[in-house]
Amino acid sequence: MNEHPSMDDLRRERMSSPSFDAVEYEAGRAEAILAIELAEAIRERRLELGLTQTQLAGRAGLRQPEVSRLESGGGTPTIGMLERLAFALEVRFIARFEKDDAA
């Protein structure tokens, strides 16, 4: 039986490669975390309002697959899409830059 390496093994192997770029890796990781946090916030608020994905999509002028993709952490929403979603979810959309405490 052919055993496959674990995700941890693959990650360790990739990180030990001479071509590994730690800055690029951390940027991608931070982007993924942000996408997951956004997905959770959209889903939680939609459920608080008792809306289906289709109903939320209708309120926001989107299609249900777009809402599904966002709730799964996929895709990159535009500012306009986030504003429409905020309106549909009865919340405010606020985007800002904050100085990093470590900087």
UniProtKB/TrEMBL annotation:
Q: What is this protein called?
A: Helix-turn-helix domain-containing protein
Enumerate the spans annotated as HTH cro/C1-type domain.
42-96
Q: What Pfam families does this protein's entry cite? A: HTH_3
SMART domains listed in its UniProt record: HTH_XRE (SM00530)
InterPro entries for the chain:
Cro/C1-type_HTH, Lambda_DNA-bd_dom_sf
